[in-house]
Amino acid sequence: MKNIKKVQPWVEIGIILATFIIYFSLSCFLPVDKAPDEYMRYEVTDYIFKHHELPIGSAEEIRNPIWGFSYAFTPYLPSILAAGVMGIVSLFGTSAVALTIASRFISVLSATGCTWLALSIGKKLFPKWSSSLLYTLSISVLPQFVFLSAYLNNDAPAVFSAMLILFSWLSGKEKHWDYKSCILLGVGISLCALTYYNAYAWILCSVIYFAVTVLTDKTLQNKWKHLFARGGIVTLVVLLLAGWFFVRNAVLYDGDFLGMDASKICGEMYAQDEYKPSNRATFENMGKSIWDMLNETEWFDRSVDSFFAVFGYMNIFVSQRYYDFYRIILGIGLVGFLWGCICKKAKGDGVLYLCCVICMVTPVILSAVNSYFSDFQQQGRYFMPALPALMLLTTRGYQWLEETFHLKKPLLTLFICLAWGAAFARLFIKVMIPHLYVGI
């Protein structure tokens, strides 16, 4: 046991370094025409890099000639940070390839940070290191997550912000919401708010988790005072770090602080006729229901598949057996979680699991609603903010299954770790290297 504990830190460092190398190497070779929407996000980043100021969403320089809008209406913190990295790299050279790789580094760092956070979260949540390892691998080497880590997007940073929020929840409850954990939660919420609307369930659930854990903390004498005082600290941090963007939006877009309506108006004005919001064929304007959309298309199956592994512009697939493998692994883990809840193993952590379910389901609902009302998309990357919560419940399920079958050694979780890692390694060699490592 002592020897294992001595090895653990080195294994963890090795995992962090290995994932960084994978993410960064892919970012150096992935072609832009295989990275969904990167060209539109890069236009915003390049504008900031060249002009040293934030753009107005309707600026002609960044407005897409087909869709008629830009990504500068809604939160784009990753693009702002990417422009900063481009500025640093430009001191040593300004080749197009170097600047493209530089713009992708925020996604690389975010994904690597997710690996580190997953290990830290696992230590707080799971009694056995094998479960912590499973939680980490299930996120860091999920093929689609690896793909998203390699180019400029909001998805990898959104997962990082979600995991930072999750870590702050656990730290806050453990430390009775001291000042540091409140500031950390405020930072996590700010990053989430400035990154991706699909991840906003984590902000909503932060309010729920914070309030419940404070009001049920038996060590606090004046719980309501603690709730408002420490909640005020979280709010102040968020206002200072993230409030400026939404105030700016409100000033620029006639009170539209989210920028969503302004983006649609811009698209209506400048998009090619067939791509104007009012002219798009959607299930809503065809008089069909969301159920019709789900029943008549493969929206859910295709979205789930691309949550696991569909690369490029939804045109590089892997063998069906991989999709079946990931479904089975997650399915067994979730069944184990439900069984544990039935056996009342969730007692004491019910609010955490409830928040995880909300954070897991909300991105799926938002993606379905957007596909129905606005733009039909069968892309699992819109589900990515659910990843930390989904894998938490799955890993907990395997832990509870081991307890149910009285397995003293973590044979089940170790087997799943090996299977998950082996599946990624084979897919990485057989699919990702030949199709994605082809040069910018």
Q: What are the main properties of this structure?
A:
mainly alpha; two-stranded antiparallel sheet; 17 helices; 2 strands; globular; 440 residues
The tally of beta strands, per DSSP, is: 2
Question: What is the SS-derived class?
Answer: mainly alpha
The geometry reads as globular
How are the strands ordered across the major sheet?
A: 1-2
Write the element-wise H/E pattern from the N-terminal end onward. HHHHHHHHHHHHHEEHHHH
**Mean pLDDT rating:** 96
Rg of Cα set: 22 Å
- Termini separation comes to 47 Å
β-strand percent reads under 5%
pLDDT < 50 runs, ≥5 residues: none
Instruction: Give the count of helical stretches.
Output: 17
* Biggest sheet record: 2 strands, antiparallel
Helicity level: 55-70%
Short description:
The protein is mainly alpha-helical and 440 residues long.
Characterize the structure shown:
The protein is mainly α. It contains 17 helices and two strands. It has helices spanning 2-29, 38-51, 77-89, 96-125, 129-140, 143-148, 155-174, 179-193, 201-215, 223-252, 260-270, 290-296, 299-309, 320-342, 350-373, 387-404, 411-436, and strands spanning 310-311, 316-317. The longest helix is centred in the first third of the chain and has 30 residues, at 96-125. The model has no long low-confidence stretch (mean pLDDT 96).
